[in-house]
Fold these 3 entries.
Entry 1:
Amino acid sequence: MSGTLQDKLRKFLSKKTRKQIEKQDKLRKLLAKMRKKQKKLEQELADETNPETQAELRKDIRILKEQRRKGLEHLQSLRERAPE
Amino acid sequence: MARRLPLIVLLILLGWMFWSSPTLSGIASGVAVFLFGMMALEQGLRGLTGGTLEALLRRSTDRLWKGLAFGAGTTALTQSSTLVSLLTISFLSSGLLGLKQGLGVIFGANLGTTTGAWLLAGPALHFNIGAGALPLLTFGVVFILTRNRILRALGWVLVGIGFLFLGIQWMKEGFETFQQAFDLTEFAMTGLGGLLLYTLVGIAATVIMQSSHATLIIVITALAAGQITYDNALAVSIGANVGTAVSTGLAAITTNTAGRRLAAAHLIFNLVTGLIALVFIQGFLSAVELGSSWLGIAEDNFTIRLALFHTLFNLTGIVVMVPLMGRLVSLLENRMPSMPLQLDQPKYISNNMLETPGAALEATRRELLRLFRRAFSLIAQVLNYEAGQLRKAESRAQLETLPDRIRSVDVDALYLRTIKPLHGLIVDFMARLSVEGDRARQLVLLRVASQDLIEGVKDAKHLQKNMVRYLREPDSPMGKEYLSMRRHLGHLLRQLDQLAAEGEESNEDMELELATLSTRVEENDIVDNGRLDELIRNNRINAEQATSLMNDNAYTNRIARNLLNMARAVFQPFAALDPELRDAIALNPGEVRALLNELNTANSQQEKTDP
């Protein structure tokens, strides 16, 4: 068995690695949902005529963007932390 | 007095036995030691496998065959159908298991229990197991005296097996000595009368001893000693099967409707199985004959043949009853409908669940969800929303609509009537739950969540006074602020109610929605976002009004934060909670403020540039 294959197998069998992968998957799913929600809000903003609602939607979008940015940073750090 | 009569008769009978015959007292002591062994074994197995069994049961509910295999496998392994039945009743009562899945487990447990007859009729009778009892008891007691929980549980298992061995040995010796003095086969009865009478004896013995294993060991040792005829022993084994369901039924009296339905199904199953065995006994005897010749069982080995008979008729019961399971479930649901609960009655938690902590914690979580719905209704009334109307409100305009008449509700009376009794029961239940490790953390989370919910309700009471006063003048500057607070809290309540209903559907959706709601709370804090200062600077409110607004803003925020904290702990099962995922997207108050400032600056710059 080649060294790489052994490494891959070890990674697969390691509980820690599996947990890490699970966490990354969950966060990735969450970020995808946030992206979808952001698009939906942007569409609502484009259709909205009431200035007050427009301001609220802008606020929601900005906050969602910030949350996504934080989430992406966390995902990056999880990837970096992943055992080689 | 009349209720205690059977016990008094039993005690007198035992006393007479001990006085008149050392042999009979040997048999009676053997039975008592055997029963004590069963209890010790059950206690040990509960400590040793409790968590594992619960985790396995959770995974064995999606397919009928899995439920059957779980029931049969765990009962064969633990030799305790009572343990499996009680675990299943707890899971069913807590809503973790449906009736059909529960039936699968119970049917399987019935098959699993037949392995006991094989063990008792085989190795237990043919070896001097009494010799092994003393070392087991000694090692067991040493383990029980240690501090380690697992070793202690193992100790109880060893002590249990030790006493079982000792009990069997005493019974065996007792019947062998008894044989020299009396011949009980003189009382043997043949034909239908004998079949029915000895079936009744089996039922009575199992109900009294609360163990079909105990009845079987008596009949097997008596059969081995030639003190009971083979035909009568078969009838006693049929009775033991029915008797065990009667015992489960008695245990289920204190559970909720779901638990009682399962116990009734168990009784029906065992009655039908017993009836089939009685009606087709000749057919079963032929089948035993055939099976014995295939398996090479000697013609005079009646104890093993009895075990084979016991397995065959239980297996037949499963084959007959599984296709009828759907109908049985409908019948039980129709005949035993869920009774409308009183306000102070719990729906999920019950005392007999305290022995199964996993199910008990899940039941507590579900009970807290019920409590949340009551708190939702109370806070909605404080805000002058109809609960149903709030659940349906989709737009901002619907959340802003005021009723024709602004009312004040008696929060204390409502709290005492709808919330406090149930909350008290939940707190009492949690206090009596004994858990360790991860489960202890879950219990703390639930306890804090229940407190958060109550504090939310109490803050709503304080908020009501000014809320009602200013909602009556919605066009004034203060009225507009209270209208805005009402809308924000209304929106939060509605979203939480929806999340509570969706519950376990998606972990990510729940986290995202809770994070959004949490940010909104920060956003809407009129002290932090500068709105209060603006109102004061522009002389739209006076100093007294400003302090009222500040206090009520604090109440509103506290209600929102408490409800959100409660939702995080209660809306999802503990296993689905992921604090890291939550923290990954959470914005702290400082970050929200910075964002709002950035947005305000952008808005004012746009206003300046706009013509």
Note: Residues 3-81 of chain A form one domain.
Entry 2:
Amino acid sequence: MPKDGTNFNDFPALSELKPGAKGFIHAVGNFAANNNAALEERLREVGFDEGLPIEFLHHGPFGRDPLAVQIDGMIVALRRVEAAHVTVALDEALTG
Amino acid sequence: MSETKLVALVGNPNCGKSALFNTLTGLRQKVANYPGATVDRRVGRLQASSDAIDIIDLPGTYSMKPKSMDEAVTVDVLTGTQEGTSRPDAIVCIVDATNLGQHLRLVLEIKNLGLPMVVALNMVDMARRDGIEIDSEILARELGVPVIETVAVRSKLVRELTEVLQDITDHPTPEAEENNSLRDLQRRARLIANVATIKAGVIHQATRLLDRIVLNVFLGPIILFGLLFTMFQAVFSWAEVPMDMIEAGVAQLQVLVNDNLSDGYLSSFLSDGILAGVGSVIVFLPQILILFIFILALEGSGYMARAAFLMDKLMAKVGLNGRAFIPLLSSFACAVPGIMAARAISSERDRLTTILIAPLMTCSARLPVYTLIIAAFIPNDTVYGMFNLPGLVMFALYMAGIISALLIAAIFKRTLTKGGTLPLIMELPKYQLPSMRYMAVGLYERARIFIRRAGTIILVSVMVLWVLSIYPNAPEGADHADIYYSMVGLIGRGLAIIFEPIGFNWEISVALVPGMAAREVAVAALGSVYALSGSEDMVAASLSTTLRGAWSLPTALSFLAWFVYAPQCLSTIAVTRRETGGWKWPIFMLAYLFVLAYGASFVTFHTATYLLT
């Protein structure tokens, strides 16, 4: 799991994905050099949590920013810089 | 027994809280402000209750650790530390049945407050449509508090909640949760949701489908622009018939007064003062209501958050947050709620920038001014086969305000409010048809505020203006109308020295003064001033006809340019002072807008004069 030294490179950040990508949230904040406690708290409050299904739905018309993702029963918008704090275990990676 | 009990409504944003509030209280509600903090505080008496139970609606929050000022108000009220309101006796925590796992975490946090509470499992109709089945008995057992299913917009489906609320304060307080870290509560909330959910559904398919169109990279911006364009065209063209009817009614009243009262002070006071003044403002009620129909529909349908999504990147370019789009859009109605809505922006700097530029969004009080001048000077032609020219000019005026606002925000961001950009994390709510009740309550509220203003601020302003324009009397054998020699004439001619370079005559200059009370009063003042200085024929003619004879086109355009930037009304200044906690920013705002208004009018007047001669 996220905190026990897994190699995070195996799991792409949400910010690197494209619309249509589906999977499960692998880690929220608290990894790499991106440590930002306030941001992590905000992400968790709005509903991001490890293990929840996530789907990348849309990106904005200008500069492909912000992103709209579906987590569980809700759709959340966030900017790419914020999405860099979330990693995703993609479905295709799990099955193939 | 007869002591009034206070019950607070709490929930995540987008849980249907305000709709539930409206249904619980009907029209027996009032909007008030917190002292020192101007977040709307809506309080209403519970319908059909034997004991006196007041319901208070609090701003939506994700947690009891506030991230923005309006969330802070919610937390302060619940913990009893908010000035001006007593601590609630009980809490109704509202959760969205279609997003149970997320919303239950707040319930767990609220349990720790030690107040009697009940959970309203809201939007059960939508959940059922999405194929979601929740057992509210299991949910109640797991949470340890009563759970009642509701459909906020149907009064029949909140009756059970109303009944439970009768003796809510006698309920035992719930046991506090053991683990309080965000993560633990989150996990526990999801666990409870899983246990209580008999059948998990698929998220609102219509929302996903609509979003594919509305948030489409190409179609999205086109739809947004088209909607705003339609909104301004509609404000102009739909309102025509009712406005003509009101105008004719006022004119008939004036004739009635003139016919039945002998010429004298009373007749002049009623006809030139009150009817000309207040009447010229009341006539804009249809336009303001149409504008609000659009804004309420955009808010109620869930589109507003999409607009913020589409605009975020552009807003970020000028250093603003996509969330600033919502306060800025509501500033089209009025800058006061717009400035208050800026409280949802978590960054202090972004909030300040948003407040400072909010008055540049053309508020509905400026509509009367624009409409009057456009009707007088812009021919009602159709251009390019489909666009109404006055509507187009109106759109251009709105755009001028928006573009200026963005430029000024960019300048502020590089100078006054420097700093990095802050996060945008927001939920995009599910689409829904805005409920009729929600629209009706909103419109009723608006109409009431507008008419009350016409009956108070505007009435008093025109009465004072009338008195000042009668005294002192004109000297014997004067060449000008009496008003020229009155106090009003004196003040106007004094101010005209300042405003002459931008093409304003003394009548306009004097109308700007009461225009500070509320912008539409400028129209009322012009109505009175011209009614008093005109001959009998001019009184009968409408104000726009009178202006066409009295002003040159460059003056009219300069007047429009002035009102794009117009130093704001007293209420805007007052709310800015409260929101920024001092006089520094409101004075700065007043100064920079005055300079802009003067500059823009100067350029407009001289360019137009040059081009037309």
Note: Confidence is low (pLDDT under 50) at residues 31-38 of chain B.
Entry 3:
Amino acid sequence: MNFKSLIGRMKKMNQQQNQKQTQNQGENQTFNQLELSDVLDDNMTAIKQFMENPRDLVARTFQIRNANVTCGIIYIDGLVNGELVNNDVIKPVQTAAAHDKLPDATMAVFDMLFQDIIATGDVKKGKTMDDVMNALLSGTTILLLDGMNQALLIDLKKWEQRSVGEPVSETVIRGPRDGFVENLQTNLTQVRRYIRDVNLRFDTHQIGRRSKKDLVVAYVDGIIHPDILKEVNRRLKTIDMDDAPESGFIEQWIEDSFLSPFPQVINTERPDKAATAIMQGKVVILLDGTPFVLIMPATLDNALQSPEDYYERWTIGTLVRMLRYTAAFIAVFLPALYIALVTFHQEMIPSNLAFSIAATREGVPFPAFIEALLMVGTMELLREAGARLPRTIGQTIGIVGGLVIGDAAVQAGIVSPIMVIVVALNAIASFAIPTYSVSIAFRILVFGMMIAAGAFGLYGIILGYIVINIHLTNLKSVGVPYTAPFAPTFLKDFKDLVFRAPVPLMQKRPEYVKPQDDQSANKGD
Amino acid sequence: MKHFEYADEKITDKELMIAMPSVVIGVGILSMPKKIATETEAADGWIPLVVAGLLFLFMSWGFAKFVAQFPNQSFLEYSSRIIGRRASILIIIGYAILVVLGIASQVRGLADVAKEYLFDQTPIEVVGLLYVLLVIYAVCGSRAALFRMSMLFFPIVISITLIVLAFSMKEFELGNVMPAFTTDTKGYFEAMKSSIRSYIGFGIILFYMVLVKRPAKAPKMVAIGMVIPIVVYILLYVVIIGIFGNAITSNLIYPTVELAKNVSIPGEFLERFESIFFVIWIMATFTSSILFLDAGVYGLTSILGNNRKIPIVLILSPLIYFVSMVPEELQYVQLFGMVWGYSLLIYTLSVVSILMIVAKIRGMI
């Protein structure tokens, strides 16, 4: 059978398969198992033909000096360290026969290259076309030998990448300054540096039917409950998409309920936060190409915690947490309360305040509900515009926005000054939530609560609150109830909830994830 | 998905304990002091409250003890073994009817109080409808979530009660409470009838015991749980009498809400505290309604032999809503509540005693 025609057929088949949703198992296997030919030219042509010889593909053949052996080297320019390829692969191979005579059998030469000549740590053997192509696309250098139906896959990856910097989305005053980057390997190193435990495990998955990306599930064996791990791995295996450009895709594929506004997976850019989660008995999912790693399972109280709570002394940690819980309530309920009080229950406002509110509302053409909707809506616009603008003109939005929703709106008589205070407080409170994804969820709920309050006053607010509670108590994250450890109640976990107990007293890992080894600290003598 | 034992549809000790006050404390407490004050002198009403409370504590303990002898069996299973399947189905249907009436009376009571204290414009039909919709949403969800919700709401309800009690204390007059023990026997007897109605609701353990994780500990937990409403009732009653005096209390329709109305928060950043109190009290009523309804639905699903509770909820809830809107005046609403209270009491007592006696005769316990 002609090898070239087979390659051509396979290529066509491969493209068709990718287009089809369901992959035919049988055909796929033949493609995966298509073995390399023992003619060097055939292999080189096949690889080039597969990719239609793109610009960044480097493929050349060369001879081993003093021996009649032809080698081929293939890599993608820009994904490998060219200098190392020259010094550690091409040069030693070319001069392989300078001192000793090469063995006659090609097999022996191949083994000698593998064992002796190539001066690189990570070298593997590849037998099938699939091995070679996947390795090539992920930045591995391929060394082929004429007369040999195997390839050496030499890992000399290097590409331009952002250096480790301070995470932008989560800043702390005290704590490590490093953040995750877009390179999986660097991120794994960072996790490894934080957790020097032999039981730290990295399970690898490949995600994406076309663009095969590495995804790593990191956990500490012996702490994590095996059911959590099994379930996360099971869900990851169900992922079947072309490409996962960001971990958000993974998150949305494996979350428990996509109808919920609450994120059931916490994401972070901070290695210390990820490491703490791993040590608590959770799973961390790292995807190549994004600095955002996922933490599962997540509960609502995770959203209101920041790593810094632990770094500062416990009194500060506790007070800050209380502040955040208050902020969470302000972020969801304040505009609704204002609407309810002004529209339905004026008698509840102390009379002096009621008079001044009434005086400021004099001339405001809209009912409180419309007024609040306008202002909170404008606030959202400002926030979104501020996030998308280039940094250089980003300040403009602050000034313009401050004028628009502040002074000008009041002077124009469109809104009352009290409304401006309410909206500002509400916005500040929602920015005090350390987890952005949960903060957004709260911003959505604000509107729901405002409608409830506009229609039914305090009664509407309490019904809204009950609805949120019904939803939360039904929600789970990888099987862990979202409202844990409040309900189901784990009193031991209350040490690290609204209160943050002094460090020597926090001896147990959180009970709600059922860690296998629950002792995280001892009494100390 | 079953991953962790605690995430299963099981009831833990703590949840069972909290479920008791959650289901017992409802809308009735808002008007209860009036009924007792009418029959008794000074603050003597605490005596029937304590007596009735202790009576119910022992009864619920006894029920739990009895039902716990059939671990991991649903009500239908164990009662079929005792009195036969047909009779058991009749019992469940009877319970479901009482549940419909009971929640209807709660809905109506709540809507009436809302009209009185929260808004006078909005029709009670709308207030009631929203509440029923919310109950449907909750009961259609997972059963464990209902117990979790009770756990979440209970501390809030207790806190608001304590706040109301604490801030009313400065107006407390000992003269209103004294002299003690001046009520005649007939008064005590009449007051007992009203007190007893405030404690009913523990019948849910008949149906929920199968879900309890450790049935052996259930009687203890149920008994501890029943202590909470007794304490809350007595505190509220004595403080209300101490502030308003017996005569005024017996003329107030909702003395408990009036108590909250009397509260002045230091700093005076909010007036009319009773609106806040009542709004938070809706949570107490809500947990009571959902646990009641779900117990009934649980019984009915076991008859049909499947686990689909949503159709049953959707059949029962319109009934609840319509029944709740039938009585036209306040006196009928109260009569309705009274009739329901007594029927549930008689029903629960007779069902359990029949079950117990037959089981005893057959030598099953």
Note: The two ends of chain A are 76 Å apart (CA to CA).
